Amino acid sequence: MTETDTGTTTGTTTRSAPANPAAALAPRLTGSVVADPDAMLAYRHDQSMLTAAGTPAAVVRASSVDDVVATLEFAYEHAIPVVPRGAGTGLAGGANALDGAIVLSLERMNRIVSIDVAARTATVEPGVINADLAAAAAEHGLWYVPDPGSRAISTIGGNLATNAGGMCCAKYGVTLDHVATIDAVLADGRRIHVGSETRKNVAGLNLAQLLVGSEGTLAVVVGATMRLRSAPGTASTVVAAFGTTAEAIDAVGTIVARTTPRAVEFLDRTTVRAVEEMTRMGLDTEAAGLLLVQCDGRDASGEAADVVAACASAREVYATDDPEEGEQFMAARYAALPALERLGSTLLDDLAVPVPALPAMLREIEAIALRTGVTIGCFGHAADGNLHPTVVFDAADDEQTARARAAFDAMVDACLALGGTITGEHGVGVLKRPYLCRQVGETERELMAGIKRVFDPRGILNPGRGF
Amino acid sequence: MTETDTGTTTGTTTRSAPANPAAALAPRLTGSVVADPDAMLAYRHDQSMLTAAGTPAAVVRASSVDDVVATLEFAYEHAIPVVPRGAGTGLAGGANALDGAIVLSLERMNRIVSIDVAARTATVEPGVINADLAAAAAEHGLWYVPDPGSRAISTIGGNLATNAGGMCCAKYGVTLDHVATIDAVLADGRRIHVGSETRKNVAGLNLAQLLVGSEGTLAVVVGATMRLRSAPGTASTVVAAFGTTAEAIDAVGTIVARTTPRAVEFLDRTTVRAVEEMTRMGLDTEAAGLLLVQCDGRDASGEAADVVAACASAREVYATDDPEEGEQFMAARYAALPALERLGSTLLDDLAVPVPALPAMLREIEAIALRTGVTIGCFGHAADGNLHPTVVFDAADDEQTARARAAFDAMVDACLALGGTITGEHGVGVLKRPYLCRQVGETERELMAGIKRVFDPRGILNPGRGF
């Protein structure tokens, strides 16, 4: 479909972009428009490394759905690219600015509209911080489950855009699994409401699930009703240190076959040493692999005992029913990335393989680190097969940067060869675009492009990102 | 998009349909083609009531993916509608034949290709019966969870087409939640592979979830890899009889807030009496509502005790940890529809409302039965708010049929007014098409139609069904 076709269909035609979009937009908005180059710098990049970012024409800080509609109507009319943006905590460059684009920031739309205790749902604006929603739910004895590593700083809108995961996915699923309905605005400014308050719904195509993980390429999310659960009670925690990574991953297979922990986290030796260096918490720095496992539910303690039994090959294993002590252990996992960041610049990957392929994937990562001469610290959500191997390098050194990139490429290759995915929970963004065509076939990409044209016929929404 | 556009895009043009599609197709297939009018009768209808069905031009009984490809290439070339069909157990007319169409039966593609115990997945052809997959998984100590009422006779392909639910959805989700990957054939004969073996995957748009519940309108499913769980251990069962439906539903609210049962089933008085009449199992026929609750997991017995406590307002409550006795109680639920069918023709509905709206929905159903003078037996999956109110009438009597239809319409009205969905797990098919535009907005339907054109530009796949 060409732009001319579209213009004909919708009865509008593309006008050339005004010289000053910010000035043209400002009177239409209750929120503010930023056009000062220095002030716009904060909206150029997300938290990814080695991803390109352009200079936007304007940054709209929307304060209402009407602001989003007005911005998109304007952008659609003038065919100006729009980059939707939450808190900018993304790790794949999906919210990086594009030259001449309007960055549409949703961070000011941060109201928790309502919590329905009987229905166990929360209705929120897209800029609500994940941890704020979790805290508000907890006040009602309810639990917002998805817990990406960024939960203290990332927004629900951003979590929806990337279908964010986290630690509790092992038992409770990813963001997708906690969505009831989504309100969004199409590229041309029309509003849509998709999904259902009911847990079961097959009335029409599943547009809600299609929007989740679409990285701002199909529509701009302006609200969502998310499902809550009853608080899970006290968790029991198991820490197990293994002499070899193979033993650690063997134990993961046994754990998931016999029990259903809410989190099964893995840290390799490089990561354990970096964490111990930073925290001095007394981790076993001679271990080749550390597992941190949390069980919840009616028999957390009994389940933890079964986890201990599954870790029979461990050098050392320790279980605790004390929630505070448990969180102290889990802190080792939360510290993984900050600890590796102390060693240099980091290029964080987000690969997932079927669980039985984890040992092979870890062997490949070790071999790649040796071959390319870079340090790779590897940690991640073992029960989901989702690893975050992190290349540590000196970004100021071109030769090291090239080797880091080579290691990164080689890890993606290995992951695809093992039947894995190039991104489990961070999204394609800019960072993974070069690899997508090796995972997703030509016909499937044609379908995705066709769907994109249905939602966004002029291609203004986050062009060149995602699929 | 017009057909001429499409023809140009794909490099093929529409040819007029041959006089005898069966004869033209037969030499291209390893499976068989049925064109005898009597033999084709068995492929005209699914199990729905009051749904129109046409006379097909041919029935293809595919025995391989190549047969499906050949059939679709032929149908696409000649713009002949194709109605994909599993076991024909649908309840909304989605697999009813259309005049002049090719019915594409997948029931002979019924091989369980493999079960991967380590990855806990099963790869199947679409014609595999749900219960056969469950039995094959059980041989490995694994569990295929989705358990629609039709599980003994319905296929995985059909379950995917309608995103079939069942009883265990309360805890474990619907068919959608158990899909890893889907292999399908597009209208023009091209094959696609969507989804991921990994539990987390955000590489591109979620085409797998889009196919699930699309009722054969986007592509023909020719294979799927479904996720399995470890066997859940012994279930504990609670039966509670209530003096009023309000008390029963109040108890449901308490149960789902405090516990996570795998099934919470409700039967109203009409249904209980019909079941007792048929089975003589000793149910309390004076009760206004019966709850059947099953708990599994590490502390099934303790959880069942909490369920009993939540049923404090019951006339009578009984719990058992004996699995055989538990299944005897659950048999009352399985008997609901057969028991009502003994009273006359039945028009089975499939409405879902948010759980807090269940009492209002049940009151509406009672009022509608009184007002229209028909019998309505109501049962369903209470924890999901998913009810199957079943109108009992004499289909040979036009006046009664009209009243049955009026009651059916009024129930859909009430459901929509309460924020519900017109179909929780049976699909839109033919039966629910008239109501869809009242649940799904115009813009959302435009998007669905646009997506349909992307997958099936000539509109040959199950036209007029679903969204």
Overview of this protein structure:
Chain A is an alpha+beta fold. The first copy, chain A, contains 17 helices and 21 strands. The first copy, chain A, has helices at residues 3-10, 21-25, 37-40, 65-78, 130-138, 156-162, 169-172, 207-211, 245-258, 269-279, 300-310, 323-334, 336-341, 358-372, 398-417, 433-439, 442-455, and strands spanning 32-34, 58-61, 82-85, 102-105, 112-116, 121-124, 142-143, 179-185, 191-195, 220-227, 229-230, 236-242, 263-268, 289-295, 316-320, 345-348, 351-352, 375-377, 379-381, 386-387, 390-393. Chain A has a 7-stranded antiparallel β-sheet, with helices on both faces. In chain A, strands 5-6-10-8-9 form a 5-stranded antiparallel β-sheet. In chain A, strand 5 and strand 6 form a beta hairpin. In chain A, helix 14 packs antiparallel against helix 15 (398-417). Chain A starts with a helix and ends in a 12-residue tail after the last helix. The model of chain A is unreliable at 1-11 (pLDDT under 50). Chains A and B meet through strand 9, helix 8, helix 9 and helix 17 of A and strand 9, helix 8, helix 9 and helix 17 of B.
